[in-house]
Amino acid sequence: MLKIDHVCSLMIEEIEDYAILLLDVNGTVMTWNKGAERIKGYKSEEIIGKNFSLFYTQEDREKKLPEKLIALATLKGKAIDEGWRMKKDGTRFWGSILITGIHDENKKLAGFSKITRDLTEKRNTGIIEDAGDVLYTTDARGLFTYISKRCSVLTEYSSEELLGKHFSILIAQEWQARVRHNYHEQVKNKVHKTAMEFLVNTKTGHEKWVEQVVILQLEKDSVKGFHCIVRDITERKKATLLLAEQKKIIEQKNKDILDSINYAKLIQDAIFPPEELIKELLPQSFILFKPKDIISGDFFWVEKFDNKTYIAAVDCTGHGVPGALLSIVGYNLLSKSVNEHGYTKPSEILNRLSSGINKTLRQTIENSGIKDTMDIALCSIDRATNTLEFAGAYNSLYLIRKNELIEIEADRFPIGVFLGGELQKFTNHEMPLEKGDTIYLYSDGYPDQFGGPNGKKLKYKGFKDILLSMQQMPINEQKDTLNRTIEEWKWMSEEQTDDILIIGIRI
User: Fold this and answer.
1) Where does 306-373 show beta strands of DSSP type E?
2) What is the spatial distance between Cα 110 and Cα 3, in angstroms, rounded to a whole number?
3) How far apart are CA 109 and CA 101, in angstroms?
4) What is the phi/psi pair of residue 103, to 5°?
5) Would you give the distance in Å from CA 257 to the centre of its chain?
6) Which of 124, 160, 476, 496 is deepest in the core (most CB within 10 A)?
7) Dihedrals φ, ψ of 74, to 5°?
8) What's the CA gap between 425 and 354, in Å, rounded?
9) Which residues pair with 171 in a beta bridge?
10) pLDDT of 451-470, one tens digit each?
């Protein structure tokens, strides 16, 4: 039987901050102090002789948690637990407990001491004083009634200097109205907990950013005061403000760059042949042009010289700004080859273009300089003789006649690159045209687009199948079909892979 010294019993009874119980070996309550009465709500006569499991929730009792704690304290000498406990009125509190074995003079287990601490408030706020937060309380008027020891670190004021003063003594002038409004709204709407960030002034005049949680204390629906937790967030706030300023600078720079690129697009569009000219020279035609970015490395070129109409689909290395710059160079060189130098065969035009690119970009055999080049499909249509001529660098020409696709292959080297010590010469292909023939010039963007159910390239076979499948359509409808098909193909892909350019012409 557990025997309790009279003096020890009196000391335990008077402690109010902790619920201290002495239990026998079965967990039956032997003593009950004022702290237990305050925390758990029972009078001593209501609980002495009962099992301590009464304070546990039904769920914990079903899990036999009280029995397990007694068994652990018996085996290990002590058991520690933290969780929800029950008060007499049925409300719950978050309790931290320590159960320690008590032994008699023969070292035989005689019972247990059980110490419980109510940590509900600290658990609700999620912030504890040991973590460096400032804790303070005020009465209903906002006068300090308690300030933790961490306050002097944050504000440089001692607790004695602030007790009895109004909380606004610490708040920066420009934040006074907003913080007061926050308190008023909390009281008006009976909001249990609010949080906000604001500036405080230290005793020596320095400013610090703080994050404050305010817990409203009510007693019979009347405001008793406020419990507040304050955390110094100055460094974090500085970093946030710096990040916001840098974000603003980056956004402005991005806007400037975007505005510049959009203006460059206007220039590029103005240089390329207008739609009216294309329709005049090639009434039965379409151009599907889908830049990957705002400006494109792909471009189309249309020119009329004597009885011939020249059409080219050109793919410069890269896309976006680098490709667009090279496209301007290429466009001008093509126009000069025909209009100034009088070249009429597609192969001669490509030879001239290749030489011009080399000179413009200063490429040599020993030191090739800029590696950027271009692939191209260039043809001429002579309406007087109904003859097609073609030359190409990597990009072939497709001619569909009576539902059969004929591929006129391009040379397997690009514009402007030395092979075998000299610039390669391009091959000129010539063939008669028939009424109803459809000609396609293109860049590699369409067949190289990733998508479909497996996220793979469409490839040239897929591209050819699409072209063959729409031969019964009018030429102006083919553009919409090609566009819709590639959009459906890439719908699961994150983005367009490359610039897309397809030119279709029906004879």
Assistant:
1) 308-316
2) 8
3) 7
4) -115, 150
5) 22
6) 496
7) -70, -45
8) 9
9) 200
10) 888 888 999 999 999 999 99
Question: So what's the pLDDT on residue 492?
Answer: 67
Instruction: Look up residue 395 and give its amino acid.
Output: N
Whole-angstrom distance, CA of residue 356 vs CA of residue 353: 5
Residue type, 192: H
Per-residue pLDDT at 152? 87
Distance between CA atoms of residues 300 and 286, nearest Å = 11
Single-letter amino acid, residue 5: D
Gap between the Cα atoms of 55 and 50, Å rounded: 10
Q: What is the pLDDT of residue 122?
A: 63
For residues 484 and 490, the answer to whether their CB atoms sit within 8 Å is no
Tokens of 316: 């410069």
> Hey, what are 417's tokens?
């690159």
Give residue 425's identity as a one-letter amino acid code.
K
State the residue for tokens 């396609």: 440
| pLDDT tens digits, one per residue of 372-395 | 578 999 999 998 899 999 999 999
**Which neighbouring-strand residues pair with 419?**
422
**Amino acid in position 53:** S
Rounded to an integer, what distance in angstroms lies between the CA atom of residue 30 and that of residue 112? 10
Q: What is the DSSP string of 405-468?
A: EEEEPPBSS-BT-EETTEEPPPPPEEEE--TT-EEEEE-TTTTT-EETTTTEE-HHHHHHHHHH
- Rounded (10°) angle between helices 346-361 and 320-339: 130
Separation CA 46–CA 88 (nearest Å): 10
Q: What share of the chain is helix, strand, coil (3-state, %, to 5)?
A: 35, 30, 30
Q: How many C-beta atoms surround the C-beta of residue 299 within 10 A?
A: 30
| Amino acid, single-letter form, for residue 164 | G
How far is the C-alpha of 155 from the C-alpha of 163, rounded, in Å?
13
* Tokens standing for residue 285: 């035609």
Ranges under pLDDT 70 in the chain: 1-16, 121-132, 318-319, 362-372, 417-422, 492-494
